[in-house]
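Slide 14.
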Amino acid sequence: MNNQIQLIVPEWFVLDELHIIETVVGESSTEIGLVIAGENFDSMKQCCPTVRLYMIRLIGEQYELMKELDAFQFQSVEDAKAFSEKLPQLNAIDLIMLMNNQEPMFA
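Slide 15: predicted structure.
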């Protein structure tokens, strides 16, 4: 995990009222990484709290959002926050299972 990166945040990210929860950049390859973003964690919208995953790529000295990988909706803000805290520790198999709507192996 790396919270000390330079990330270009596009205007749509701000307009959609998303906030960055965590950035994850690999130790062996710093060229790509993930942004874990939260939506409606303040419960101001009528939609469910949502955790969104975005792929980021290093371009020059800064990272840019490339695309959304997946979104996970939750019934409560507490559930969304708990999930986003576990997300950086997931192994690849659990993440793939989650992204394919299967039960993950983690507790």
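Speaker note: The first strand starts at residue 7 and ends at 8.
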